Amino acid sequence: VTYSRLADEVACYRGVLRQAGVRKGDLVGILLPNSYDAVKAFFAVSTSGAVAVLFPVQLPPQAIFGCTMKYNLKAIVTKARMNPRKQLQDMPRRYWRYLTEKQTDNR
Fold first, then answer.
1. Of 40, 59, 75, 98, which alpha carbon lies 20 to 30 A from 65's?
2. Nearby residues of 25 by Cβ (< 8 Å), 6 or more positions away
3. pLDDT tens, position by position, 69-106
4. In what order do the strands lie in the sheet with 98-99?
5. Do the Cβ atoms of 23 and 14 come closer than 8 Å?
6. How far apart are CA 26 and CA 40, in angstroms?
7. Residue-wise over 11-28: b if at least 16 C-beta within 10 A, else e?
8. Of 1, 4, 14, 7, which is closest to residue 103 (Cα–Cα)?
9. Cβ distance 25 to 46 under 8 Å?
């Protein structure tokens, strides 16, 4: 991976964040295992002017929901294969926006 490629992929993520309504100063959760994707997401959130809130992947859904409510997160960046919709099915939908790896790959 080159710095140029990383910059392009971060710009792609940043575009998805903007389309989801994320603005400067918003809090955005990152629910990803330690990986290249987590680095891209972190840089995209940070360079967009938003604030990254990192969640450990083993955190129970109820704790994620509690943090989302407490900190008023604008979005959560996660991977589609982690299936957050299934994990969080009992939580009110209006509090969640999902940004999946698939969305960022299509940009």
1. 40
2. 49, 50, 51
3. 888 899 888 876 555 455 445 444 444 444 444 444 44
4. 51-54, 27-31, 75-78, 98-99
5. no
6. 18
7. ebbbebbeebebeeebbb
8. 14
9. no
